[in-house]
Design a protein that fits this description.
The chain is of the alpha+beta class. It has helices spanning 29-37, 71-83, 96-104, 106-109, 120-127, 129-139, 189-196, 260-273, 303-309, 314-322, 342-350, 356-365, 378-394; strands at residues 8-10, 17-19, 21-26, 40-45, 58-62, 90-93, 146-149, 164-168, 184-186, 206-210, 219-226, 232-244, 250-257, 277-285, 291-297, 338-340, 368-369.
């Protein structure tokens, strides 16, 4: 059992409570929130200036390192911290980089942490979009037609039907492409060649996929925690409301749904994959109602914050299984529960996705506001609002990102 505390913090939504114990989060406030909702004290990997350090629910922090290029040193830093704790902490990971690092160094990390993670080979296949396309074909999963290729082989993409979306096969290579968002749309062979030209010789591998028409609000997702026996412990579905950028962007507003066909297909996908642990399966609904599988992410994510608010706290269930075996009540799910990222959604609205009236409506009614909680306002007020106002008063030039696109966060 993780380190116990004399007091406890009840979950007001369902009356369930755990002693204040410790989890270690490789992630942000949207992953910390469902844990502290269950009364679990968190430590986290946070940069010195990260506003999340100001949260009263973050007991301590470790300065992060490059999760792609400094994995061995980062793992050593994390295990040194964990071995200094009274009891073994539970490890949670939110980004692809954190997932890959934990998976590739699972034997070392398992000496200091408790965690759930899928089979190593499956992790590699799901993170690499090209390998996932091959795996999906073998398992007959309902994915759009795809081809993976190198920039020097741009003609391979012409085997598909335009329009296409093109994205790096590995998330590690997103910074090599001059795009903001998860992919770029190309409408003809000339656009493919133009996109590939500056990437020649870079070693980047690309994935081209036939585009399923329709807005990002047609993207729906299935979320689940599958235990070591293969049983689905908890699950819920959701859909995007808005994203920024408008096409292939990062979620700015979402809601928990009750889509039975997404639930059924999501279960089938994870069953065919033989996945154990947590996962999110993203689908896009075509005009005729068919669901196409876009990707499967075997990690924790921002949707878990909304899921916990809707009655299915998957991180808390994982924590319970890894400590004293006590799980919180999981369900019934409350469809319509909303998560909202105010700043990113403002950019989305200004870019023509929705209206300012809708933005103000979300301000009033959103169930979860990313980066802000009424019972824990310091991270937003002191970490975000106050520095912004101080720059305005001093007429300092804006730091990069103030008026531009937000940094990438996993969805």
């Amino acid at each position: 059992m993780a380190r116990s505390r004399a007091d406890a913090a009840p979950d007001r939504a369902n009356g369930w409570s755990l002693p204040l114990q410790k989890a270690f989060v490789l992630g942000d406030a949207d992953l910390i929130r469902p844990l502290r909702k269950a009364g679990i004290v968190c430590a986290a990997a946070l940069l010195p200036g990260d506003a999340t350090r100001l949260s009263r629910y973050v007991e301590s922090s470790v300065e992060p390192m490059d999760r792609w290029n400094e994995q061995a040193d980062y793992v050593e830093r994390l295990t040194e911290w964990a071995l200094g704790q009274v009891e073994t902490p539970v490890l949670f990971y939110q980004t692809d980089g954190d997932l890959v690092m934990v998976s590739r160094h699972r034997d070392v990390l398992a000496r200091a942490f408790r965690f759930v993670i899928p089979d190593a080979e499956l992790v590699e296949a799901l993170v690499d979009k090209g390998r996932f396309a091959d795996l999906a074909a073998r398992l007959d999963l309902p994915v759009p037609r795809s081809r993976r290729f190198r920039p020097e082989e741009a003609e391979i993409a012409e085997e598909l039907t335009f329009p296409l979306i093109v994205k790096p096969a590995s998330h590690q290579h997103f910074t090599r492409m001059d795009i903001y968002g998860k992919a770029v749309r190309v409408d003809d062979a000339g656009q493919v060649r133009a996109l590939c030209e500056p990437l020649r010789g870079s070693g980047v591998e690309l994935l081209a996929q036939e585009f399923i028409p329709g807005p990002e609000s047609r993207i729906e997702s299935y979320h689940a925690y599958v235990d070591g026996t293969g049983a689905v412990v908890g699950e819920f579905t959701g859909r995007k409301i808005r994203t920024y950028p408008r096409e292939f962007g990062h979620t700015s507003a979402l809601e928990i749904s009750g889509s039975s066909d997404v639930l059924q297909l999501g279960r089938e996908v994870l069953l065919r994959l033989g996945l154990r642990g947590v996962a999110k399966a993203d689908f896009k609904r075509a005009a005729d109602g068919r669901l196409f599988l876009l990707e499967v992410n075997p990690r924790f994510n921002l949707w878990h914050s909304a899921g916990a608010e809707a009655g299915v706290n998957l991180p808390a269930a994982v924590y319970g299984d890894l400590t004293d075996g006590t799980r919180p009540p999981l369900g019934p799910v409350r469809p319509g529960t909303t998560w909202w990222a105010p700043q990113r959604d403002w950019w989305a609205v200004n870019a023509g996705e929705g209206s300012r009236r809708e933005w103000w409506a979300m301000l009033m009614r959103a169930d979860v506001r990313s980066g802000f909680d009424w019972d824990d306002p310091r991270p937003a007020v002191r970490g975000l609002l106050w520095p912004h106002l101080r720059r305005k008063w001093r007429r300092d030039p804006p730091v990069r990102g103030d008026r531009g696109a937000p940094v990438h966060r996993p969805t």
